[in-house]
């Protein structure tokens, strides 16, 4: 299955614009309850103003809220970023940790965010269960669960670790372009054509 998607989406990658682990961590925290494309419109100015954890921790909340306003939930997001910058400086010397539990100890960082950073910034195989990965996994019959941790485990049972990070990018690309939530374009689906999709729930 992943081979089929790999032929269609050979360049699939993380859609959050970033340069290094710090920027990816911040961008991923900001992507909650909004789109990656929208996050990419605010992060250039944010990273110019806050190029590292120390600058982020020392930011004025009002300035952060102004920068983040286009994303919505700017007060909560500003609070997460201030706590994130402080946590990185106080506990990790300003560096992004390479450990999942350490990442998840930071404000605004859950398992999905930690997996994004591990897989894309540090090359540690990780499965990111966003809405697309969850939906496609159920439609493909890989899982019946809506619990992200259960879905992650079910995918891990099917794929070798070398496929985890980029395989999720390919699923996300397919979910965005073909296998939409309400109106999937099954007539254009390479997985259905190859007899790999049972169309569960479609």
From TrEMBL:
Keywords: 4Fe-4S, DNA damage, DNA repair, DNA-binding, Endonuclease, Glycosidase, Hydrolase, Iron, Iron-sulfur, Lyase, Metal-binding, Nuclease. One of its GO terms (molecular function) is endonuclease activity. Coiled coil: none annotated. It catalyses: 2'-deoxyribonucleotide-(2'-deoxyribose 5'-phosphate)-2'-deoxyribonucleotide-DNA = a 3'-end 2'-deoxyribonucleotide-(2,3-dehydro-2,3-deoxyribose 5'-phosphate)-DNA + a 5'-end 5'-phospho-2'-deoxyribonucleoside-DNA + H(+). It comes from the Bacteria. DNA repair enzyme that has both DNA N-glycosylase activity and AP-lyase activity. The DNA N-glycosylase activity releases various damaged pyrimidines from DNA by cleaving the N-glycosidic bond, leaving an AP (apurinic/apyrimidinic) site. The AP-lyase activity cleaves the phosphodiester bond 3' to the AP site by a beta-elimination, leaving a 3'-terminal unsaturated sugar and a product with a terminal 5'-phosphate. This is Endonuclease III. It comes from Actinomyces lilanjuaniae.
């Amino acid at each position: 299955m992943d081979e089929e998607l790999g032929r269609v989406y050979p360049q699939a990658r993380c859609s959050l614009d970033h340069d290094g682990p710090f920027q990816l961590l911040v961008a991923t925290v900001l992507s909650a309850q909004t789109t990656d494309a929208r996050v990419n419109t605010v992060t250039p100015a944010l990273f110019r103003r806050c190029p590292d954890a120390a600058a982020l921790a020392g930011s004025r909340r009002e300035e952060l809220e102004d920068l983040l306003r286009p994303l919505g939930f700017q007060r909560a997001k500003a609070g997460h970023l201030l706590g994130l910058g402080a946590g990185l400086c106080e506990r990790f010397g300003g560096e992004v940790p390479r450990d999942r539990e350490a990442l998840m100890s930071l404000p605004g960082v859950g398992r999905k965010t930690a997996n994004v950073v591990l897989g894309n910034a540090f090359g540690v195989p990780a499965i990111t269960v966003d809405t697309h990965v969850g939906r496609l996994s159920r439609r493909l019959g890989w899982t019946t669960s809506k619990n992200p941790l259960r879905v992650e485990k079910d995918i891990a049972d099917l794929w070798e670790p070398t496929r985890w990070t980029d395989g999720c990018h390919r699923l996300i690309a397919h979910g965005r372009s073909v296998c939409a939530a309400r109106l999937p374009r099954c007539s254009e689906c390479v997985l259905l054509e190859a007899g790999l999709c049972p169309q569960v729930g479609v």
